[in-house]
Design a protein that fits this description.
Layout: H1 11-18, E1 27-33, E2 38-42, E3 45-51, H2 53-56, E4 70-75, E5 80-86, E6 93-96, E7 104-108, E8 113-119, H3 126-138, E9 142-148, H4 156-162, H5 164-167, E10 172-174, H6 180-187, E11 195-199, H7 206-214, E12 239-242, E13 248-251, H8 265-271, H9 275-278, H10 295-301, H11 307-346
Parallel strand pairs: 3-5, 8-9, 8-11, 9-10, 11-13
Antiparallel strand pairs: 1-2, 1-4, 2-3, 4-5, 6-7, 12-13
This protein binds guanosine-5'-triphosphate (GTP), magnesium ion (MG) and zinc ion.
Magnesium ion binds near residues 207, 234, 235 and 251.
Length: about 350
């Protein structure tokens, strides 16, 4: 029998389960998301499960179960099951679907911590780290910045300077798969029962790192055609693995960049560490653009705040506003459509 506690099962999830109509049935956690089915870890081992029609009906695609979700299932035989319900999702990592402004896709859920992985070659990009962090802050997921491939040589002073505003509140780790002690220090950031997602571009070494932590080749890794990770995605699915005696690790396919789906101005200011300046602006509703007595602009002028960080703040804020406007529009359209359908039903179009 597997102890699901190792996978993060706890009394608060147990309480949530009691509210389900299917509370008497077994539960499990999704370890792998395939195209149309899921591998679910249960007390009785791994089951391959499909969703009931009810689980699909009336849900946005972003609400379909994903790796890390806790589900309630009916066992069919020794290997198969059907998912009947899903416990309320907490701390989920979403990304914007490519080419859309407001369509979200869930990557993993019930996440305590995210390792934002970048390699110390052309892939290193502070603006991209900020985007990841903003996304995580929205869900109260802790961030750790993990910089790989130190063996390739890099300018540490320059990297530290670029990360100055982020490293105040967020740990920054440097690793190389060729330096075992650098992998060992990563272990200290993984607590028992905790779930950690590894996220970052393709080719930065996420799977390599997980293999090094587990101590065997559990995930496939491969050479990439170039350091920007173009054209090669070795990991193609979201997969969870238990680090014995420690936490649960989730490997994900490379993500180039996160679109902003967080429009909370406070978390943006916190991530970029400008909240202290903001608090000193003359007007409480200061937008930090051209107002008199703006402490943020003053901080840029006197060198306390990097102009790059300030520009990044304005850009991310614009994107966040754009995202919420599109979301709002989508909801209004949904409401309008619901109104039309209701109206038609009233007039006797029963088949609707
Ligand atoms: N020099 C060096 N190469 C590394 C290091 N870590 C990983 N690599 C190499 O980088 C390449 C990509 O590693 P992967 O672990 O497959 O990268 P990934 O982030 O999982 O990529 P996707 O699965 O495509 O998202 C492989 O050739 C690894 O051997 C490191 O610390 N130093
Ligand atoms: Mg991989
Ligand atoms: Zn201001």
């Amino acid at each position: 029998m597997r102890e699901l506690n190792k996978y993060g099962w706890n009394s608060s999830l147990q309480q949530q389960k009691q509210k389900s109509n299917f509370a008497e049935l077994p539960h499990g956690r999704i370890a792998v998301t395939h195209k149309t089915c899921y591998d679910v870890i249960t007390e009785d081992g791994l089951l391959s499960c499909e969703l009931t029609g009810n689980m699909l009906y009336g849900r946005e695609p972003s609400e379909y179960p994903c790796t890390g979700d806790w589900v309630i299932l009916q066992k069919m035989d020794e290997e198969k099951g059907i998912i009947l319900d899903m416990l309320p999702r907490q701390k989920a990592l979403y990304r914007l679907k490519t080419g859309t402004v407001s369509e979200k896709q869930a990557i993993a859920s019930h996440i305590d911590k995210a390792f934002i992985v970048q390699s110390l070659d052309d892939n290193f990009n502070v603006r991209r780290i900020e985007r990841f962090m903003l996304q995580l802050a929205d869900q109260n997921i802790e961030s750790v910045i993990l910089l790989t491939k130190t063996d390739l040589g890099f300018d540490k002073d320059e990297v530290e300077r670029a990360l100055k505003h982020l490293s105040v509140n967020t740990p920054v780790l440097y690793t190389s798969v060729y330096a075992p002690e650098s992998i060992e220090q990563v272990r200290k950031f993984i607590s028992k029962g905790e779930t950690i997602v590894f996220t970052g571009s393709s080719g930065v070494g996420k799977s390599t790192l997980i293999n090094a932590l587990i101590g065997e080749q559990v995930f496939e890794t491969s050479e990439i055609s170039d350091s920007t990770g173009k054209g090669r995605h070795t990991t193609t699915r979201r997969e969870m693995i238990l680090l014995e005696g420690s936490g649960v690790l989730i490997d994900t396919p490379g993500i180039k960049v996160f679109g902003v789906t967080n429009d909370d101005a406070n978390s943006l200011a916190n991530v970029l560490n400008i909240s202290d300046f903001e608090g000193q602006c003359r007007y409480a509703d200061c937008q930090h653009v051209n107002e008199n007595g703006c402490a943020v602009i003053a901080a840029v002028e006197n060198g306390q705040l990097d102009a790059d960080v300030y520009e990044s703040y304005l850009k991310l804020r614009r994107e966040a506003q754009h995202y919420s406007a599109s979301e709002y529009e989508k909801r209004q359209k949904g409401k309008a459509l619901a109104g039309v359908i209701k109206d038609m039903k009233k007039r006797g179009y029963k088949e609707l």
